[in-house]
């Protein structure tokens, strides 16, 4: 059955987290380079951020309340500063500049434009704080392409809990059974969307598929969705 709505995860689905971090690291090096030795490259900064960021999921067992706080602490304590910024200053820098440095997943914006032109209702459902999710979507120009964005903070639950998915379907005024959800995480995105009654599409390339989970529909790039939707009965 053809969907009436397409819902998307944000990090590593519509936004490429690794490319975004590399872009942000260049801004970081430009703003803080005078306090660091010349051999501390933007690539080294990106590697440190990647290590603590964990693809947007952070590091298991981290003592910090958010990924952003963890990253700021690592930058403050593990780089050879001549004048060390506070973790708070680094957190502010991340929030102020990371959204504008973010890089879309190849073809994401064009895909959303095609889907909307075809009459499909679009939404983003993403774990994280409301302000950071909206800032990232705005930085990529996604906010003007979707009808609603549901953060886990606003939904009061994190994926794979069904509540964020169901809130997005409600705000789109589409039954969950007529929604497809596209995401990169097998549990948070695919299992979560299934639990909410949606068809889930796994974007491979960022996580391994657990042997304990059932079979799934898979794509390797976002532009494969066009053909997948086109094969569905219009009823």
In short:
The protein has ten helices and six strands, in the order βαααααβαβααβαββα. By secondary structure, the chain is α/β, with parallel strands linked by helices.
Give the radius of gyration: 19 Å
β-strand percent reads: 5-15%
CATH fold assignment of the largest domain: Rossmann fold
Q: Tell me the structural class.
A: alpha/beta
Total count of helical runs of at least 4 residues: 10
Largest sheet: 6 strands, parallel
What is the global morphology?
Answer: elongated
CATH homologous superfamily label of the largest domain: HAD superfamily/HAD-like
Can you put this structure into words, describing what you see?
With 235 residues, the protein is an alpha/beta fold. It folds into 2 domains: 5-16 and 104-230, HAD superfamily/HAD-like (Rossmann fold, 3-Layer(aba) Sandwich); 17-101, no CATH class. Helix content is 46%, strand content 11%. The chain contains 10 helices and 6 strands, in the order βαααααβαβααβαββα. The chain has helices at 17-32, 42-53, 67-78, 87-101, 108-117, 130-139, 152-155, 162-172, 186-195, 224-230; strands at 5-8, 121-126, 148-151, 179-183, 199-203, 217-219. Strands 3-2-1-4-5-6 form a 6-stranded parallel β-sheet, with helices on both faces. Helix 1 crosses helix 2, helix 1 packs across helix 4 and helix 4 (87-101) crosses helix 6 (130-139). The chain is elongated, with a radius of gyration of 19 Å. The model has no long low-confidence stretch (mean pLDDT 94).
